Structure formats: structure tokens, C-alpha cells
Amino acid sequence: MNEIVLVEELAARAWPPATLAELDGWRLRFTGGVTRRANSVLAPAHGGTIPLEEKIRHVEDAYARLGLPPRYQLCPASQPPGLDMRLAELGYAVDASSIVMTAPLPLATGVASGPRVAISEENDPAWASAWWTIDRGQATPPPLLGILRGSRGAAANASIESDGRIVAVGRGCAERGWLGIFAMATRPDQRGRGHARAVLDALGAWAAASGATRAYLQVEARNETAIRLYGAVGFREAYRYHYRELAPG
After folding, report:
1. Which CATH superfamily is domain 102-238 in?
2. Which residues touch 173 (CB under 8 Å, ≥6 apart)?
3. What is the model's pLDDT at position 46?
4. Does an H or E element contain 77, and which?
5. Lowest-pLDDT range, 11-15, 67-71, 90-94, 135-139?
6. Domain residue spans in the chain?
């Protein structure tokens, strides 16, 4: 359980919200609706001074004031025990069931030579735009740059270009001996060319150079292709998490 708490803390620091409010051991995160993680409640502890039902009502009011749905990010370490069940009873639906995978560094990518990966520790808006376009097919929302610039610890953006355009990306956040891997995406017409392995290899080497020995990442449980890739380079399931969100009405 201690490792789960640590990884959750590192991931939260790597993907910080625009606004953070503390509530009796819970963290309420608000970022204009951009990404689930940055707009959800993280429950690493339960202060125990406010009754659970009152805390849940406070959360609902806080998110409603900003026009956001109340949402919780829940894992085996979430507090208090039984929180997930209580939210289910209140009508909160499960969303985005995900697997957290961990691996030792260096990763077993098998990359001896291949696509050239550019690594930059600058939060270039062009990189952010390329990632969001590849992953979401949309223009970059302004709050995204704030998330990237606010990452704690060291951070690096990886990219691969082909014919003058970015075709594959990934992001690494290194802290406390761990590398967190985020924002992995490859253009559909460029898949199957080893780009993702090359990005993983480059991020692993970047983090290892500063002393990181372990890596973690999150992947949606339905993304079987990505899970197979990560398993092939050394990642293994450590635990799972999901979101619970209260639909309007």
C-alpha cells in the first residue's frame, strides 16, 4: 500500500491543477474541466473531523459553483475505506477504469537504432498542441499549458518528427527516483513503426541519467494495444484506479 500512496502522490505532483483546495485530508482539484485528473477529488487521507456525508456535499457544492461535475479519483489507498461504495450508492458512475503499471529502468525497449527522438525540458506550446491534436483531435485548451508548466520535479517532452511534423510524443516527469510517463500518443498513420518504443527508450534514458530507477504509467484498461506494448518493455500491473462522477440531474 505504501508504494500505491507514493505513486499516486508523484502522479498528482506531475499533473497539478490550476486550483487546489484542501478538505479534511482530501484534495479538490479544479482546472476548467481540462483532463479528469486535474478536475477531480484525490482522497489520500481522511482527517476524520468532518462527517463523510457532509464532506461529499461540500465537494458537490464546490464543483457546482464552477460548473464542473463532482468527480473522484479512487484507488485501493483512497480514504476513508468504503468511500467508493458510498459514492456508488449515491449514484456516482464509474468512468475511465485504468491500470497503473510499473517497471525497473532501463526499460527493455529493444531499441538499438530507429526514429530520432527529440527531448526538451521546455514546455513548448507547439509540443502541447501536437500532443492534444494527435490524442484528442482538438485545439489545445489554454489550461493545459498551465498543467505542464506546473509539474513538480524535472519534466521533459519527447517528440518524433517526420516530413516536418510531429508524429509521436510522450512526456516524462522525474522525482524521488521515479519516472512518470504521460501523454503517449502516435498519429494513426504512423503506428507500427516503433515510435512509441523509441519515445519510451528516450524518456527512460533521460530519467536514468538523473538517478531514476523505476518508472510508472497509467493506461486505460480498455486500451489493450498499449497494455501489450508496455508489457513487452517491462511494465507490470501494480494496481488499478477509476473515477466516479455524478451525472447532472
Report:
1. Gcn5-related N-acetyltransferase (GNAT) (3.40.630.30)
2. 10, 13, 14, 151, 152, 153, 154, 155, 179, 180, 182
3. 93
4. none
5. 135-139
6. 2-99, 102-238
- Residue 103's Cβ-count burial label (10 Å; 0-12, 13-18, 19+) is buried
Q: What is the pTM of this model?
A: 0.95
Helix (DSSP H) and strand (DSSP E) numbers for the chain: 7, 11
Distant-in-sequence, close-in-space partners of 29: CB < 8 Å, separation ≥ 6: 17, 19, 20, 37, 38, 39, 40, 41, 42
Share of the chain above pLDDT 90, in %: 92
Beta bridge partners of 69: none
Amino acid at 209: A
Vertex 77 angle, CA 224 and 244, to 5°: 60
Please state whether beta strands 71-74 and 41-42 pair in parallel, antiparallel, or not at all (unpaired).
Answer: parallel
Yes or no: say if 71 and 102 are a contact pair by the CB < 8 Å rule.
no
Instruction: Give the residue among 192, 228, 237, 215 at the shortest CA–CA distance from 76.
Output: 237
Residue type at 53 in one-letter notation = E
**Pairwise CA distance, residues 108 & 89, whole Å:** 43
